[in-house]
Amino acid sequence: METRGRKRKRDMEMRSPFSELSDDLLVEIISRAPFKSTRCCKCVCRRWRDVVSHPDHRNKLPRSTLAGFFYKTGDLCCRSMNRHYESLTGNWCPGIDLSLSFLPKYSLCGIHIDMLDCCNGLLLCRRQETDYYETTDYVVCNPATRRWVAVPGTVLSSKKPVARLGFDPDVSSHFHVFEFAPAAAAKDVNMQLSVDAHTKPLGIYSSKAGAWTHPSNWKCPIKIDKYSSSTFFRGLLYLSSCSDKVVAVDMEGNCRAINIPTSHGYCVSRDVYVSQGQLYFAICSASELSIWALEDSSNENWTLKHNVSRLKLFGDEDPSEYDVIIHPEHKVILILCATFCTRRISWTELMSYDMDSRELHCVSDLGYDCKRPYLPYVPFFSPSLADGD
User: Fold this and answer.
1) Alpha helix locations (H) across 252-333?
2) How many CA atoms lie less than 13 Å away from 377 in the CB half-sphere?
3) Taking Cα atoms as reference points, which of 52, 132, 31 lies closest to residue 382?
4) 81: closest CA among 70, 65, 69, 67?
């Protein structure tokens, strides 16, 4: 039976002049508004929410852009490192709370928060008590709205397994946390995890179900460590490794390996990203940087989109090592160039490379002892977080 308040709201929607417009006309109007305003349009009424969220309208509506990235600095020997955020858009997305002071229990000095992954505007963190490291759980938060959801830890969480986040706001406000543990931990949870072991145990947390599931037949064909690049695309978590494969993991724990293109010379790193609606793969070798796109995942058809020699890219100022971030919308690559001043101290500079003009520009100096992972951040302004479909 329809309540009086719900009936009044439905009558108001029917009397609105926008109710006479077709969906195509409504999309045309909303598409002229900034991205942040389109997110607010989803809160007007159910029809507007459905129109903005419909898959057929995604390419017509403005999208959030890359605002910056999170990273850490400090000595790897220390358990706690400093958190940083590098803005790429000036004041477009102000107010990022680097201290994450809105998270629970942060006022206690004995809580250490480690940033693990960032996916479509949500940040996955591990919380651990510094005095009692067996107490560990996760927090998924939205830095733009300061909303957060606590995720209980598993028996393996205190051993610092590889954890990744899966979230697609166009499909649901719910998220998934993937927890990968090396095979050694399956026999003895008190054994220190080795990142060189094949990862077999897998836990998947669903915010909708509010529980972890552990596929019993999980087998992974590649070696995954805490530095393995990952991205969430069309309901699958893609992870890279030092081997010539990328694995795609779905919500049920089913795994499929995808062969990647071979690199010329010694490979420094392999990173997977989503850009312009496709899965991209960046190979940083000792001789060149090459960018590939997966045209068809069913037949592993990779297409070379760009390549440039390391000598032509850096010239005489060749860094000791470098990492890349592919822009999610434009043909731009962000390059983090690290130069070692001493054996343990490095200086990192942020560069921007345009794949069309093949020009490299200096953006800013990040400073000393920057550490991976560099987590690209695309703001998500919706107030909803794991509270509805």
Assistant:
1) 310-314
2) 29
3) 52
4) 70
pLDDT tens, residue by residue, 307-344: 999 888 888 777 888 899 999 988 999 999 999 888 77
Residue 181: its H or E element: strand 175-182
Cα dihedral across residues 45, 46, 51, 55: positive or negative: positive
Sequence-ordered list of residues with C-beta below 8 angstroms from that of 173, at least 6 positions apart, any chain: 382, 384, 385, 386, 387, 388, 389
Could you give the dihedral angle defined by the CA atoms of residues 362, 346, 334 and 322, in that order, rounded to the nearest 10 degrees?
Answer: 120
314 burial via Cβ count (<10 Å: 0-12, 13-18, 19+): middle
Alpha carbon 54 to chain centroid, angstroms: 23
* Half-sphere exposure at residue 128, Cβ-oriented, CA atoms within 13 angstroms: 19
Q: Indicate the helix (H) or strand (E) that contains 359.
A: strand 359-368
Measured between alpha carbons, how far is 173 from 389 in angstroms, rounded to an integer?
A: 6
Alpha helices of the chain — where are they, by DSSP H?
4-15, 23-30, 35-41, 46-53, 184-187, 310-314
pLDDT digits (tens, 9 = 90+) for 103-127: 876 544 567 888 999 999 999 999 8
Write down the residue that tokens 């991976």 correspond to.
372
CA distances to 87, 92, 351 from 67, rounded to whole Å, are 6, 8, 15
Distance (Å, whole) CA 316 – CA 227: 28
Average pLDDT over residues 77-105: 74
Comparing CA positions, the residue from 108, 160, 165 lying closest to residue 134 is 160
H or E element in which residue 285 lies: strand 278-285
Rounded CA-CA distance 212/261 in Å is 35
Give, as one character, the DSSP assignment of residue 227.
T
- CB-based contacts of 278-282 (< 8 A; 24+ apart in sequence): 279/231, 279/233, 279/238, 280/305, 280/326, 281/240, 281/246, 282/324, 282/326, 282/333
